[in-house]
Structure formats: C-alpha cells, structure tokens
Specification:
The chain is an alpha/beta fold. The protein contains 9 helices and 7 strands, in the order E-H-E-H-H-H-E-H-E-H-E-E-H-H-E-H. Bound molecules: BIS(adenosine)-5'-pentaphosphate and magnesium ion.
C-alpha cells in the first residue's frame, strides 16, 4: 500500500499515521518529522527549514522533494508507505508522480472549529508520541518513555493561522487533484475521537 495522508494542520494525520503504520506494517514518512529531526541535529537542511516552519510557511520544494525522493529509495518501504504531509502543493504532487505510483490519497476532513484548540493543546515527546492536554490529567511527562513533554514551536495561535492559510492556498486544491485521478477517499472525522476515526480509516483500507 502506497498512501498519501492529506488533511489540514491538526486534522489528525500524525495520530492516524502511527496507528495505520502499525496495523498494516507500512512505513510512516512525515516530512514535518524529518525537518524537526534535522533541526534537532543542527543540519543545513534543519537550519533552512526552521525559519519557514516557525513562520508556518512551506519549506522550499527543491529541498522537500529531494528528501522524499531519497527516502523512497530506502529498502524499508518495499512493503508500502504512508506519506504524512507530502505532497502539499500541486507542484509537489506532480514531482511525486515522477518517482512514485500512489494507490490512494486518504483525506482526513476535520471540523475547522476544532483545529486551533487541538493544535495549541498538543504536547509532544522527543520519542515521537503526541498528546493533547485534555487527556493528560495534568501529567507533563510521556506515558511511554517518561520524558518531559514539550510544545512544538509552531503550535502557537499566530503560526497556526498562517499554517491554515498556507493549507487552504497550496494544499486543499490537492483534494480535487486526486479526486480527478480517482484516488481520493475522504474520511469525515467531524468531532470523532481518534479511535472512531481509526475505525473509519480501517474500513477504507480494508477494502
Ligand atoms: P507538519 O508537521 O506536517 O504539520 P501540520 O501539517 O501542520 O500538521 P500537524 O502535525 O500539526 O497536525 P496533524 O494533522 O499531524 O495532527 P495530529 O495527529 O498531530 O508540518 C510542519 C511544518 O513543516 C509545515 O508548516 C511546513 O513548514 C513544513 N513542511 C512539512 N511538510 C512539508 C512539505 N511537504 N512541503 C513544505 N513544507 C513542509 O493531531 C493534532 C492534535 O489533535 C494532537 O494534540 C492530537 O492529540 C489531537 N487529535 C488528533 N486526532 C484527534 C481526534 N480525532 N479527536 C481529538 N483530538 C485529536
Ligand atoms: Mg503531524
């Protein structure tokens, strides 16, 4: 299975991607996570990406497309993969079609009024786990590894607004792009909890 996971910031791409990857034995590739790992590692890519991410804008295509192209040459993708956060524009989608044959674009449609609270309430762990303050019962540490949870630098109201604008302008048109190719399936998440969304996602993937 070669899947694109599409959705606005805070739609639950990362939350669902972790579960999908585990259940279906495919690799989860998140361009956002790759950039954050580069920032942490102090690489040249990280230095470049940071200013764009902090502003809520897209990291330049030349860098992003090369990263994904290279990542898809690794041997671990042979059983399939899930692209989380790529492509994010028609240009990126066209570049992707030059080196990958995607089976499905899974679009997570979320109630827009929920996004700001979801993102600003997110707490993340360096091990990759992600939580929401409403379910942490006051805890500030990761239930999986015990490390202190932090707030993503781009999870503040002002940057979220820009990320949403960037999504509407550049990424939302991909819904029609993949629909026209007969590859789009939309899961209407509304205000469903992550388990309910995952159930709906599995119904699509099991077909
Ligand atoms: P990226 O890391 O991809 O961020 P994003 O698209 O803004 O999406 P998020 O990770 O914020 O949300 P998500 O949909 O994964 O939701 P999550 O599951 O975490 O990109 C960051 C930046 O990197 C971009 O702004 C850009 O600068 C750069 N970048 C990345 N890819 C790029 C590309 N291709 N080209 C150029 N630049 C690129 O959930 C969010 C919160 O909601 C969590 O707290 C979670 O616990 C909670 N939650 C999830 N599901 C539910 C639910 N069903 N009910 C209640 N709460 C829920
Ligand atoms: Mg994410």
């Amino acid at each position: 299975m070669k899947i694109i996971l599409l959705g606005a910031p805070g739609a639950g791409k990362g939350t669902q991607a972790t579960r999908i990857a585990q259940k279906y034995g495919i690799v989860h590739i998140s361009t956002g996570d790759i950039f954050r790992a580069n920032i942490k590692g102090g690489t040249e890519i990280g230095k470049l990406a940071k200013s764009y991410m902090d502003a809520g804008e897209l990291v330049p295509d030349s860098v992003t497309c090369e990263i994904v192209k290279d990542r898809l040459t690794w041997s671990d993708v042979k059983n399939g993969y899930l692209l989380d956060g790529f492509p994010r524009s028609q240009y990126q989608a066209e570049v992707l079609s030059g080196f990958a044959d995607i089976d499905l674009c899974l679009n997570l449609e979320v109630d827009p009024s929920l996004i700001m609270d979801r993102i600003c309430g997110r707490r993340v762990c360096s091990c990759g786990e992600s939580y929401h303050v409403s379910t942490l019962n006051g805890s500030t540490t990761c239930a999986k590894c015990g490390k202190e949870l932090t707030v993503r630098p781009d999870d503040n109201p002002q940057t979220v607004k820009t990320r949403l604008d960037t999504y509407e302008k550049n990424t939302a048109p991909l819904i029609d792009y993949y629909k026209a190719k007969g590859k789009l399936v939309t899961v209407v998440c509304g205000d469903k909890n992550p388990d309910e969304v995952f159930k709906a996602v599995c119904e699509v993937l099991d077909k």
